[in-house]
Amino acid sequence: MRIGNFIRITLIAVILSVPLTAMTQEVKFGHISLADVVLLMPEYQNISKVLESETSVLERQFNSMREELQKIEIDYENNFDKYTQEQKNAKEQEYVAMQQRVQEFFVNAQQTLQRRQEELQVPVLEKLNQAIDAVGLEHGFLYIFESNSGLTLYQSSKSVDVTPLVKTKLGI
After folding, report:
1. N or C: which end of the chain has fewer CB within 10 A?
2. How far apart are CA 130 and CA 163, in angstroms?
3. If we measure between CA atoms, which residue out of 32, 2, 38 comes closest to residue 124?
């Protein structure tokens, strides 16, 4: 039983000493404005250029389809009195079908651009996270919070703004 008591006493001493050693270490918290960093990253600016170009292509296609739809409508209105009922029905069906294609194209284009934006942002956000992790490790931060998230209810003056450190790590 003496060995068992010794182990228990040693275990209790170790458990009690851990919080004391943790309390003697400095606890560092940091905050960062992600928007301030991301907007300066050259990779992010390239994303904007790529998306503008792809948006322009899709807008031209969309406008072309809308012009075609408008031609169908104008033709229908101009020749309404000349058309037989069968021709009117056919033109109305053509118009409705084209209108549906235009709407589907618009929805698909939005989804395509959203997916493309997400796809292009992944490497940029990974690079940013790596820089934040490196700054956190190098400077001994326990946590780094996003300062503009709206989730921070209180921010002490002891919290370190790591935005400049991350910018430096990224070379911007």
Report:
1. N
2. 14
3. 38
C-beta neighbour count of 62 within 10 angstroms: 15
pTM of the model: 0.68
No. of helices (H) and no. of strands (E), the chain: 5, 3
Q: Which tokens hold the place of 81?
A: 């009195």
Question: 153 lies in which domain range?
Answer: 2-170
146 burial via Cβ count (<10 Å: 0-12, 13-18, 19+): middle
Nearest-angstrom CA–CA distance, 30 and 38: 17
Question: What domain count does the chain have?
Answer: 1
Q: What is the CA radius of gyration of the chain?
A: 31
Residue 159 sits in a domain of what CATH number? 3.30.910.20
